[in-house]
Amino acid sequence: MNGRGNNDGSGRIVVRNLTKRFGPVEAVRDLSFTVEPGQVTGFLGPNGAGKTTTLRAALGLLTPTDGEVTVNGVRYEQLGSPAKVVGALLDSNAFHHSRRARAHLRIYTAAIGVPDQRADEVLALVGLTDAANRKIGGFSLGMRQRLALATALLGDPRILILDEPGSGLDPEGVAWLRGFMRSFAGSGRTVLVSSHQLAEVAQTVDQVVIISQGARVFEGKLDQLRGDAQERVHVRCSDPTRLATALAEHGVTDIQSSPDDGLTIIGATSVTVGDVALAAGVAIYRMAQERTDLEQQFLQLTTAQYQPRGPYAQPGYLPAQPGAFGPPAQSPGAYGPPAQPPGAFGPPAQQPGAYGPPAQLPNQEGPR
Amino acid sequence: MSAPAPGGSAPAGSDSGGAALGGAWSAPALLGLLVAEFRKMMSTAAWWALMLPAALIAMLVTWVTAAAAGLAFTPSLAQALALGSFAAKFAVVLGLVCATSENRHRTLTTSYLTAPGRPQLLLAKIVVGALFGAACGVFSALFGLLGMLIGGGGGAVSGTEFSSVLAVSAVSVLVFALWAVLGVGLGTLINNQLAAIVGVLVYLLLVEQIISGLASLSNFGRIDDYLPGGSASASLTGLAGSEPFGGSFSGLGLPWWLALLIFFGYAAVAVLAGAAAAQRRDVT
What we know:
Structural class of chain B: mainly alpha
Number of helices of chain A: 10
CATH superfamily of the largest domain in chain A: P-loop containing nucleotide triphosphate hydrolases
CATH architecture of the largest domain in chain A: 3-Layer(aba) Sandwich
Largest sheet of chain A: 6 strands, mixed
Number of domains of chain B: 1
Helix content of chain A: 25-40%
Largest sheet of chain B: none
Strand order of the largest sheet of chain A: 5-6-7-3-8-9
Number of helices of chain B: 12
Largest interface: A-B, 55 and 43 residues
Distance between the termini of chain B: 31 Å
Oligomer: heterodimer
Strand content of chain A: 15-25%
Strand content of chain B: under 5%
Shape of chain B: globular
Radius of gyration of chain A: 25 Å
Shape of chain A: elongated
Distance between the termini of chain A: 56 Å
CATH class of the largest domain in chain A: Alpha Beta
């Protein structure tokens, strides 16, 4: 690039032991990861996990409590003309609503130091040419999102940081954005995209960083995440209670009921389930084996943030999503056989009311 | 890769010795920020929505004083009151709006991301704020003269008195610019648009009057000219001719240039406080 300062032009973002506290709240805790050029890096975590705080610290908008973030080897403030290096979409509503789209962009072409016709180029790029002279106040959320992206692209940056870019976009817009991110990274540039939904970025990203409660819980390729998945068997049978009991006696205790009167068994193969059902004299109507999908892996990694409390920590009737929002309060994210999984099917003696009204389950109703 | 950007970018940045600061404070970078701030102002209605009432109220005041109290007020004093005590309030609001609308509309993030640094952005806002404040002063002074002509006829505006009116009008342009700069500084410090505008107006219209009133009753005596609003007014009334009410408009009789200097000090303090706050503040 311009060879200014120690800017190495690598297109690399390095987060090093970043900690950010807002008063008593620790939004980000000793977070480290690296974003490499030439690929799309997904930055995932539930709402409130610290994604936006991390991105804003990378962009010099927040002062870290500890640690640092470097872009091209230097802090954002040292980049000189930063918008020519990094383009960022942080807030799809950061507009003065009475400005027109082109007037908005021409403020920043001047600030960045690029020719004014760049405004029309980026408007065409995001498909807003027809709306160039309309007031932003009349824009739909999707149009604002695209205008925010256009603003980020004004300086023709080699690094793109996108915070939840999919929100507000229609399916067509999401597909377009995916293609855009891929081609941007394909030309050797850097894309860091955050999302609270793995599915939204799963098809696009090469690398993922997953954080929960401000700390990193996973960094690596998506395939690695997939590889950690466990077997999952979904069964419909003549007597779910008896099958669950029989499975529990075989040491398979991570079982949950699904709304269609079936069972979801985690950590056992269909062979085991079939054998146990035959021995217990339970007829199998339907059985499907699947690997735990990415979304569930993601939920498992981040679920510690959602330890149920209060009246919503109701066990008993579970959706077909093990470990998601259900009651495994005592064993957050653990798919292995927990000591006493409430709401699952242990031996009946220990688990009163497994199928019945969930009134008197232990560990759930009392104050925590 | 990104070939167009460096190619078309500020060449002055790359030949400035390689230091990051050199590029960040280069003339093209600063000029770009000035143009950006100017476009920010021109692309919304705030500038004329504040300049228009400022000019109209200046005209109204000189008109009424010239028509109703033409004997008690010299034309230069009428002009000084119309500009200093009435129209100037709009200049400070103009500065406040210039600084706080970025926070209100959440565009501050984009502005920080596209500027080499926060001090540079504030500097651009100060310069552009001063320009719009000065423009507000020019319009207000012209409309003040117009009101005087309508109300009092051309007879009062003549000879030595007319040069005094011109002097008041000329200095008012500087005072208005400083009011806008003070507004930019305070707006950067306070950040919340409504709180900043209401707070500053309540201070100028109420609190400062109470302070100077209490001081005049105590053994401090008259301190009007040392307070922000009072020093700005005194720099204009001090220029005006004779004072019919025995000096009640500039109690201390400070020379106009000293009052102006004091007011300049307040504007500088506001800017420094705003700069310090902006440098530290997290933008969430």
